[in-house]
From TrEMBL:
CDD domains: FERM_B-lobe, FERM_F0_kindlins. InterPro entries: FERM_2, FERM_central, FERM_domain, Kindlin/fermitin, Kindlin_2_N. GO terms for cellular component: cell-substrate junction. Residues 190-326 form the FERM domain. It comes from the Eukaryota. Residues 159-200 have a biased composition (Polar residues). GO terms for molecular function: integrin binding. This is FERM domain-containing protein. One of its GO terms (biological process) is integrin-mediated signaling pathway. Residues 139-206 are annotated as: Disordered. It comes from Rotaria magnacalcarata. Signal peptide: none annotated.
Length: 326
């Protein structure tokens, strides 16, 4: 008589609680990220469009955007704490002409992809020439340097500063210039009030389906103004410019560039932070005044402020030649 062999039982996978914000979700290591998000949305029981939301792991500093990957593939365990947040957030973007624009950016893609999308919405071609810069300021050491310099050296520095101010004033007073000075704290890009519907779509989080519409309406309102910078007194702007006094401070400024291969969230950027949009790679081609009015104006404004803040070393003759090219 044959003896029946007992078949080994397949062990069940252990389930555990995963904390997402303040909600505990029962999961297993083989569950996909998409299944976890569906279970979380069902637990929240909120009638809202979550198509723009994704899971963020603060401890590992990564986005869990691949919905087909499992928790084991990402290395998520029971001690992990995740955040369920939107991928598009509002930022305060300072343009090269020092105007500040409230706009929505993608925090889940690389900085290179985010800059390409921002430049497309702002009407700037060849986004590979630009990048994002942190707004941290270098410590001002003018007082300590002034104590160590002689009175004769101080008089020379004061004369040099006054010479730069007089050149900047001549730029501001020239009414025939295409690009004039502007205020770095101007929150609006039009002299007339922007439509409240358009302003609310830019400042508040929107799902992906409505994001393109809101940004397209924004470009329609500001595209003409970005090609012409409004005038403002020069003394209100020079006091807010970062003026590096030595090579060390210049190197610190150059170290504030964002890593183009990482996302904004991975580089400790929060919502409504001030981020600088600047030309980083000075190799320009295909400059066409017909299609690049915004690009040419922003490029000229960045070069002008770099000269006035003494970020670029040049002679007085070179500055006068540059001031004539408008």
């Amino acid at each position: 008589m044959p003896i029946p062999l007992s078949q080994p039982s397949i062990p069940r996978q252990l389930s555990w609680n995963l904390m997402i914000d303040s909600t505990a979700v029962v999961v297993t290591g083989s569950m996909t990220i998409g299944s976890v998000m569906v279970q979380l949305v069902n637990r929240l029981d909120i009638s809202q469009d979550f198509s723009d939301y994704a899971l963020w792991w603060p401890k590992a500093n990564i986005w869990l955007t691949n919905t087909k990957w499992t928790l084991d593939q990402y290395g998520v365990q029971s001690d992990a704490h995740l955040n369920f947040t939107s991928m598009h957030k509002s930022i305060r973007l300072q343009l090269p002409d020092l105007r500040v624009l409230s706009i929505t950016a993608n925090f889940s893609v690389s900085v290179f992809a985010a800059v390409s999308k921002l430049c497309k919405d702002l009407g700037i071609r060849h986004a590979e020439e630009l990048s994002l810069l942190h707004s941290s300021k270098v410590t001002n050491t003018d007082v300590s340097n002034e104590r160590r310099t002689s009175p004769r050296r101080r008089r020379h520095n004061i004369g040099t500063l006054n010479r730069h101010n007089s050149m900047g004033d001549s730029l501001a007073n020239n009414s025939s210039t295409v690009s004039t000075l502007c205020s770095p704290t101007t929150p609006k890009l039009r002299s007339t009030p922007i439509n409240e519907t358009t302003e609310s779509t830019v400042r508040h989080q929107r799902p992906i389906s409505n994001l393109s519409k809101s940004l397209n309406s924004l470009v329609t309102n500001i595209d003409g103004n970005l090609a012409r910078t409004p005038a403002t007194p020069l003394k209100n702007v020079l006091s807010q410019l970062v003026k590096p006094t030595n090579i060390i401070e210049k190197s610190r400024l150059n170290g504030l560039w964002y890593d183009s291969s990482k996302s904004l969230m991975e580089q400790n950027t929060n919502e409504n932070d001030l981020i600088l949009l600047r030309f980083k790679y000075f190799t320009y081609y295909d400059l066409n005044p017909k299609f690049d009015a915004v690009r040419l104006n922003q490029l000229y404004e960045q070069a002008k402020w770099s000269v006035l803040s003494e970020d670029i070393d040049c002679t007085e003759e070179e500055m006068m030649t540059f001031a004539a090219l408008q």
